[in-house]
Design brief:
With 191 residues, the protein is an alpha+beta fold. The chain has helices spanning 13-26, 38-50, 98-113, 130-137, 179-186, and strands at residues 4-7, 55-60, 63-72, 82-89, 117-123, 141-152, 155-165. A seven-stranded mixed beta sheet has the order 1-2-3-4-5-7-6. The N and C termini lie far apart (47 Å).
């Protein structure tokens, strides 16, 4: 059966917690050192949903094999048009193209919502990193590297920043009808 990508539901969080646990315990993409509880993952999910951000899962035969979401890059209101992406794939599904399909769907959702930039903050972002290569294939360009910024599994890790412009990026003024601007104005903000 083929892969389907859909919006995340609360009942997906047990599986998402397991996928993320593997990344925390065995990988270097996340700089967390302890696995968050299912309750903590629920708090994080609720915050993204409350903010109107996209959170997607990829599944095959009813089993979630990966997830991706976009969340705020920074809390200051001038950053409201920029999001940071996160993507995690179950170990048994890596290398099968699932990440590209999931990230493309996330980019599409962010574009529809009216965001202007997506930032990837990639832990252990060496040139051969699957995450770096994935983001490059999707049109992200390198914008920076913080050398030795994380220490995990007995070694120093570099953090790479990559960026993708959407909806005209910084070449056009903000769209008053975009989700980030509507939410800002609804909270009493003035751009």
């Amino acid at each position: 059966m083929s892969i389907s990508i859909r919006h995340t539901l609360p009942e997906d969080l047990d599986r998402i917690t397991g996928i993320y646990a593997d990344a925390v315990l065995n990988g270097t993409a996340s700089y967390e050192l302890e696995v968050p509880t299912r309750a903590e993952m629920g708090v994080r999910y609720d915050a993204l949903m409350e903010g109107g951000y996209p959170y997607l899962v990829a599944e095959r035969d009813g089993v979630v094999l990966g997830y991706a979401y976009a969340g705020p890059f920074r809390a200051r209101p001038a950053y409201r048009f920029i999001v940071e992406d996160s993507i995690y794939i179950a170990p048994e599904a890596k290398g099968a193209g699932l990440g590209k399909a999931l990230m493309q769907a996330l980019i599409d959702e962010c574009t529809v919502l009216g965001f202007r930039q997506i930032i990837a903050v990639i832990g252990d972002g060496h040139a051969d990193s699957a995450s770096v290569r994935l983001h490059e294939r999707l049109g992200f360009h390198h914008t920076g590297r913080m050398e030795g910024s994380g220490y995990k599994h007995g070694r120093w890790l570099d953090t790479v920043f990559m960026q993708l412009a959407m909806n005209g990026g910084a070449t056009l003024p903000p769209d008053a009808n975009s989700m980030p601007e509507r939410r800002f104005v609804a909270k009493g903000g003035k751009g």
